[in-house]
Structure formats: structure tokens, C-alpha cells
From TrEMBL:
Residues 71-214 form the DUF6318 domain. Residues 21-90 are annotated as: Disordered. Signal peptide: none annotated. Pfam families: DUF6318. It comes from Nesterenkonia aerolata. It comes from the Bacteria. This is DUF6318 family protein.
Length: 224
């Protein structure tokens, strides 16, 4: 497969504005009423009101963050505010189904990485010695460091066989459909690559609290 790509200050003294100085000397009797001390302020009430205002501000800030619209990757730039793929519960279970779920999550993580530059999800389920995993992560990081990006279609995994011991290593044989992709820089479109169907692959996975991909191997590339 081809993976080429070039590419203030705050007003802290506000309280000082509340300080005022009265005239010196004793007040006349006639002014006694007007100079009578003001009713004491309920400090607890003030603190409660301030706390409520802060809470309202925080809620408003959270709503603003949640309201940011996800923007898909396009010729204008990489995806923005794009959600990470959701981890399936099964990948935390020591079963064959969990191994397959983790493998599918790996490809969803790669799709996310190529469209956003965020390699966190795919890195999290990649074994240290997985050569293809490392290559995909490194290439994606390099592309985005060069201010380039991809528009990547989704990958599709179709399991064909599975064997091994869930207490050790499970091998999943699968057929991969890799989506088409385009590569861009600020100079515009650099490359268009068509997707591939029925790419025969195998994955070794191991369980340690969650399933991870130890190795990926291309077994047989489809004829063109």
C-alpha cells in the first residue's frame, strides 16, 4: 500500500473603587438620620450569589465547548472537533470476540488519526513491536508536522478465521477494505489514491486488561 505524503490583566483593584472618605467632624443632629449606618450586608448571602454566578458561568462555558460543531476533513483542512472512536466494551473482555473488537477499534483509530492527526486512540492499542502499527503512527505524525493532511475514507474489517489461546496470543485472519484517500497541503491536492478491497491480512493480539495488536501482516494483496 502507498502511504506517501509531503507536505488583562484582570481588574483586581476593583474593590478600591468601593472605598470612600466622609467629612471629618461630628455630624449635626439633623443629619443623624442620613448618616445612620447602613444595614449590615449578609455575607453568606453574597457568597452564595457569587457561587451561583460562577456556576452559571461554568455551565455556560461547558455548553459552549459542547456546542462546537465537528468539521470533517476536506480540501480546506483536517477534521476539527472530531470525536474519538468509541471503545467497545468487548475489548476489555478476555474472549475471542474481544480480540476482534480490539482489531476493529485499531482500524477505526487509524481512520481517526489520518483525518485529524490525533494518533492517541490507535497508539493505545498498538503493541510496541508492531511494525505496521509503528509505521502508520510515524507517517501520520510526520504528515501533520509538515502542515499537510489526509481525507481518508473508512476501513472495513471482515473476519475470516480466528485461532489461538486467549490466555496467550490470538490470531485473527481478516479481509480488509481500505478506503480511498486524498492528501493535501496548503498548495492544494497532492495525491489521490483509490481504496483496495479484499486485502488478506492477519493480526496477532494479546490480552492484558484490554486487547492490543501485537503484529499486523499482509498475507496476500489483491490482483489489480
Amino acid at each position: 500500500m502507498t502511504w506517501r505524503l509531503r507536505t488583562a490583566a484582570s481588574a483586581v483593584a476593583l474593590g478600591l473603587l468601593l472605598i470612600s472618605c466622609g467629612d471629618e467632624g461630628e455630624p449635626d443632629e439633623s443629619d443623624a438620620e442620613s448618616t445612620a449606618p447602613a444595614e449590615a450586608v449578609d455575607e453568606d448571602s453574597v457568597e452564595d450569589d457569587a457561587a451561583e454566578e460562577r456556576s452559571d458561568d461554568e455551565d455556560s462555558s461547558d455548553d459552549g465547548a459542547d456546542s462546537r460543531e465537528p468539521v470533517p476533513a476536506s480540501s480546506s483542512g483536517p477534521a476539527e472537533n472530531w470525536p474519538e472512536p468509541e471503545k467497545p466494551d468487548a475489548m476489555f473482555e478476555d474472549t475471542e470476540e474481544g480480540a476482534v473488537a480490539a482489531l476493529e477499534y485499531w482500524w477505526a483509530g487509524l481512520h481517526h488519526a489520518r483525518n485529524t492527526g490525533d494518533t492517541g486512540p490507535v497508539r493505545e492499542v498498538s503493541g510496541e513491536d508492531c511494525a505496521i502499527c509503528k509505521n502508520e503512527i510515524d507517517v501520520t505524525t510526520e504528515v501533520y508536522e509538515q502542515d499537510a493532511w489526509w481525507v481518508q475514507d473508512e476501513y472495513s474489517v471482515n473476519m475470516t478465521d480466528i485461532w489461538g489461546d486467549t490466555d496467550e496470543i490470538v490470531v485473527v485472519a481478516f479481509s480488509l477494505t481500505s478506503g480511498a484517500f486524498e492528501s493535501y497541503t496548503d498548495q492544494g491536492l497532492q495525491e489521490e489514491v483509490e481504496g483496495q478491497s479484499d486485502l488478506s491480512m492477519e493480526a496477532d493480539l494479546a490480552f492484558d486488561g484490554q486487547w492490543s495488536v501485537l503484529q499486523l501482516e499482509i498475507m496476500d494483496e489483491p490482483e489489480e
